[in-house]
């Protein structure tokens, strides 16, 4: 028996007609495809929902995220606006590690207008013509179950070409040019764009927040009397407050940009006196470092012990915990 797949529909609120089309797509996937599909319209009518948490859980827990592309969706994704902008930041790390989780559906016929910048190389099932709806629904359901419409032929045996060279034939080797400077680490001619850096920072911000929450949840399970609260101020700022036996002992504020720095940086403030409103002071600034071969990495610019290292989100969280937070709990 085939696995029962789950799917969450991501889309832009473009108006009543579009929202009805989304509901119909969800119900058709459920009734005609046996897919446990849903979207926010069904979730919010069943219970009280934190929309940001719902989107995080939807992308993390479902087998598939079906993204319905329109020109409005593309504009909001490129500008990181509203719920679509938040979903875009959430999806960037997952697109790198789990690209097959995402299925793209094009509701409007203009490829150039309907695709956000970071999705322009991806294939989308074209639902723009309502006359072809059943055909495209079948393609979508087959994609979910990985049951293609066409079958590849079985591989045959490799032919025995039986090539014989005459005795007087000389085979010339094709030489590959090798420079004496091949060992030098020369810079790449292409440059990473500001938009690529912005998306890298936004994706790293989400991952750092997720790792801090995972760390504090582990503390709650293992450390008696430890509790924490988490507040999402907006799509680019989050605050964690840490308590021991009911008393606040420390906290972490994380936000994108601040204090005259461009938005291609992540700032952190930690300790027991964090201001949610003011972003004028910070303990750490994380910037984008681009190697000569156009590989992006994170750097902690204010930490003497790690400022020359290329860092991952996990290394950053570990470093801040060890150097600045753990002492509050005498661990």
TrEMBL record:
Instruction: Note the Pfam families from the entry.
Output: TIR_2
From the UniProt record, give one GO term of the biological process aspect: signal transduction
Q: Which InterPro entries match?
A: SEFIR_dom, TIR_dom, Toll_tir_struct_dom_sf
**Gene3D superfamilies hit by this protein:** Toll/interleukin-1 receptor homology (TIR) domain
Extract the signal peptide range.
none
Annotated coiled-coil segments of the chain: none
Q: Where is the TIR domain?
A: 3-145
Instruction: Provide the SEFIR domain boundaries.
Output: 4-136
Instruction: Give the superkingdom in one word.
Output: Bacteria
Protein name stated in the entry = TIR domain-containing protein
